[in-house]
Design a protein that fits this description.
Blueprint lengths: L2 H8 L28 H10 L2 H5 L18 H18 L4 H10 L8 H11 L6 H16 L6 H8 L10 H24 L17 H15 L8 H19 L8 H17 L6 H10 L1 H10 L3 H12 L8
C-alpha cells in the first residue's frame, strides 16, 4: 500500500458527509496518481506554487496601495480564509485538504485594485467579468503557460461557487464560501479602523461580539453547531451577521474616502483594455496565443486581470506617459 493509499484510507474516518479524494469526480485530463499525495493534496500544492497565487501579495483587498505594512492584501485575505475554513472543516470532520485547496484558489482571478478593478473590467468587456469565473479560467487555462493546473472537479466547483449563485456541491466548498465572508468582513473592519475610516464607537453593538477575535469565534462556533447537510449559521447569528455586512457596505465599501481613487482605477483599466485590443502585438506571447484562440478582447482581459496593482500602473505609464528625451 502506497503512502497515498494510506492517506485515502484514513479519510474513511471522516464524516459521512465529507468528500473523499478516492471518490473524486476526476480531472479534466486523466493523469497518473501521485504515490505520496491524495488528489486534493496535489491540487492544494499546485495552487500554492502557481504564479497567480504569488501575485496576490500585490493586489488590493479594500484600500488601494495603502501606506503601511499591516493592511490586508488579496494574499493575506486568502490565508485568513483558508485558516477559518479549515477550522470549521476540522470541527465537522470534513476533508481539510479539499477545503484548503479551494480556499487558496478562490481569488486567483481577482483583478488589480480589488473590486474597483473588477467593476471596471465588467464595464469595458462586452461579455462581462466576474472574478470567481476568472479564477476558474486561471486554473483551467491560464496557468502553466496555457496548460492549466488540471484540478479536480471538487476544487474547481468550490472555486467557481465561492461567492454567489448556487452553493458549492461539497460541504468543504460551502465552508470556504462562509469563511470568505467571515474573513473579509472582520479584517476589513480592522483595516478601516487602522485607516481612520471607522472608530470602535461606530460599529453597532452585536451578539457577535465586540472585537474581531470574538466575532470570528462566535461565527465559527455557530457554523460548527448548526451545520448538517449544509453549512449554516443559526438564525440569530445569521441576522446579526447580515446587519454587520450591510453596515460595512454603507460605511466602508461605499465610503467616499475609500472610493476617492476609484475613478482613476476605472480610467487605468479602460485605457489598458482599449490599448491592448487595438495593439494585440504588444501583448506577451502567451496572451497573443489566447488572442488567436479566443479573441483579442478575451486576451486583453486575461492579461489585465492577472496584473498586480503596481504592474498595472507600470504598464499604464509605459503605454501612455511620455518619457523624457535624452541624447543617445
Amino acid at each position: 500500500m502506497s503512502i497515498r493509499q494510506r492517506l485515502e484510507q484514513a479519510e474513511q474516518s471522516l464524516s459521512s458527509r465529507a468528500a473523499q479524494a478516492v471518490a473524486t469526480r476526476g480531472r479534466q485530463h486523466p493523469e497518473a496518481e501521485c504515490p505520496l499525495r491524495t488528489a486534493f493534496q496535489r491540487d492544494r500544492d499546485r495552487i500554492l506554487h502557481s504564479s497567480a497565487f504569488r501575485r496576490l501579495k500585490h493586489k488590493t483587498q479594500v484600500f488601494l496601495s495603502p501606506e503601511g505594512d499591516h493592511y490586508r492584501t488579496r494574499l493575506t485575505h486568502t490565508l485568513e480564509v483558508a485558516q477559518i475554513a479549515r477550522t470549521i472543516a476540522r470541527a465537522l470532520q470534513l476533508n481539510e485538504d479539499l477545503t484548503e485547496a479551494i480556499a487558496l484558489g478562490h481569488d486567483l482571478g481577482h483583478t488589480p485594485f480589488g473590486h474597483a478593478g473588477e467593476r471596471a473590467l465588467r464595464e469595458v468587456y462586452p461579455a462581462g467579468f466576474n472574478h470567481y469565473v476568472q479564477s476558474l479560467r486561471v486554473v483551467d487555462k491560464l496557468e502553466d503557460r496555457g496548460q492549466g493546473l488540471n484540478l479536480t472537479w471538487e476544487v474547481r466547483n468550490g472555486i467557481e461557487r465561492h461567492t454567489t449563485g448556487p452553493q458549492p456541491n461539497t460541504l468543504e466548498g460551502q465552508c470556504v464560501r462562509l469563511a470568505d465572508r467571515i474573513a473579509y468582513i472582520n479584517h476589513d473592519i480592522d483595516d478601516a479602523r487602522r485607516a481612520g475610516v471607522l472608530d470602535d464607537r461606530d460599529i453597532p453593538p452585536s451578539i457577535l461580539g465586540s472585537g474581531k477575535r470574538e466575532r470570528i469565534h462566535n461565527l465559527v462556533l455557530s457554523a460548527v453547531e448548526n451545520s448538517g447537510d449544509i453549512i449554516a449559521l443559526d438564525p440569530a447569528t445569521q441576522a446579526a451577521f447580515d446587519t454587520l455586512h450591510k453596515f460595512m457596505f454603507d460605511h466602508v465599501y461605499f465610503n467616499p474616502l475609500c472610493k476617492s481613487e476609484e475613478s482613476k482605477v476605472i480610467d487605468i483599466i479602460a485605457w489598458l483594455y482599449e490599448h491592448f485590443t487595438r495593439h494585440a502585438e504588444e501583448l506577451p506571447e502567451d496572451f497573443q496565443r489566447i488572442g488567436e484562440e479566443d479573441g483579442v478582447q478575451r486576451a486583453a482581459v486575461d492579461y489585465i486581470a492577472g496584473m498586480t496593482d503596481r504592474f498595472a500602473v507600470h504598464v499604464f505609464e509605459a503605454c501612455f506617459v511620455p518619457r523624457a528625451w535624452t541624447m543617445r
